Amino acid sequence: MYARSNTPITPKMKIPCITCSVEILPETHSRNHGRCTPCFRKEFKIPSNRERLNPFFGQDGFGCITHYFDASALIKYFLDEDGSDRVRNHVHSCLKARRSHEIVFRTTYLCFGETLGHVKNLYRRRKISCNQYNEISSSVLKSISHTFEIEEPRIGYPPTAARTVEIVHKYGVDMSDAFLIVAAEWIKKEHQYLSGGLESILVSADRDLIAAAKNEGVRVWDILLEATP
Q1: Cα 35–37–40 angle (5° rounding)?
Q2: Model confidence over 188-229: pLDDT tens digits?
Q3: Domain span at 209
Q4: Lowest CB count within 10 Å: 21, 41, 165, 211, which one?
Q5: Which of 60, 17, 15 is nearest to 39 (CA)?
Q6: Angstrom distance (rounded) from CA 108 to CA 117
Q7: Does 121 share its domain with 25?
Q8: Distance CA 56, CA 28 (A)
C-alpha cells in the first residue's frame, strides 16, 4: 500500500490583474502581461470572436435582438402550415439585413428534438412520404448553427432546474416550454453587458406558452396573430 501524503492540497494561488485587480490564474497573468483577458484585449485592442463577426459590436447604441423559437415556430419554419410564409420571410429578411443591430435566431435542443419528433410522427401516420421525411429532417439538422443557434442555460444546473419546475407548476405548461421561458430570461441576463442592451423575443404559436411568457415579462411574437415582432 502507498503511504498517504500529509501535504495539504491547495488550489492554485491567484494573482490580481494589474488593471482591474480581479484575481486571475498565474498562467493567465503570465500570458496576458499581468492582465485578465478582457483588460488584455482592451489594452492591446484585440477583437473578440463576436467583434470579428460583427464590426458594429461595441459601438454606441449597439444591441442584440434575439428571436427565441419554440417548437411550434420551428415546425412552421420547416413545414408548410398557417404562418409558415410569415416566419420564413421574417427570418430570411433579417439574415440579409444585419446592420447596426445584431439579429440572431436561437432555440434549445429540446425544441429541436420536439420538431424532429413531430416530423417522425407525421411520417408514421403517413401524412408525409419517406422522401419528405428525410428531406425535412435533414433541413432541421443542417439549420443548427447555420440559421438557428443553440444557446441555453444548463438544464441540470440547480437554479435553472428549480426555475423551470416553478413555471411548470405555475402555468401547467410542459417542461420544454417552461425551459424556453427560462432560457429567454437567462440569455437576456447573460448579454446585459452589451452597450445597447439585449432584447429577447420568444417566437411561438402556442397559446399556453405565449400566455405564460407574457405573464413572466418575456416579450413574445405571436406568429398567428402578429405580422412582425
Answers
A1: 55
A2: 776 655 444 567 889 999 999 999 999 999 989 999 998 877
A3: 60-222
A4: 21
A5: 17
A6: 14
A7: no
A8: 28
